[in-house]
Amino acid sequence: MTLIHIVLFKFRPEVSEEHKDTFIRELKTLKSLPCVKNGRLLVGSPSVTNPIERSKGFQVALVSYHEDKAALAEYQASDEHHRVTSTYMFPYKEDLVRFDFEVDAEDEYMCHFPLLA
């Protein structure tokens, strides 16, 4: 089974681009956690949604893959995750949306793709 974790981040207006860039770099380090399935963690910014208003002001997106709910819980509880979110996100956030879902068995094959180093 695969569980997909999606988070959208919105910073307060006064937060600098430099800070946002640092946050993105730090988020990307979380792909090395063993609870992230095969290192599949993507971070994207800025939104290229057209019209941009449909992005509702969210500035950074994270999508990560986990083996199951226990692996996602391990990810959430990790010291590394706590360090990144408590240092670079929560003191600066305006809003955050999280959505997690289990991939249906018939779609699981789409979660198995070769990784390029």
TrEMBL record:
Positions of the Stress-response A/B barrel domain: 3-101
InterPro entries xrefs: Dabb, Dimeric_a/b-barrel, HS1/DABB1-like
Protein name: Stress responsive A/B barrel domain protein
Pfam families the UniProt entry points to: Dabb
Matching Gene3D superfamilies: 3.30.70.100
Subunit field text: Homodimer.
PROSITE patterns hit by this protein: S_R_A_B_BARREL
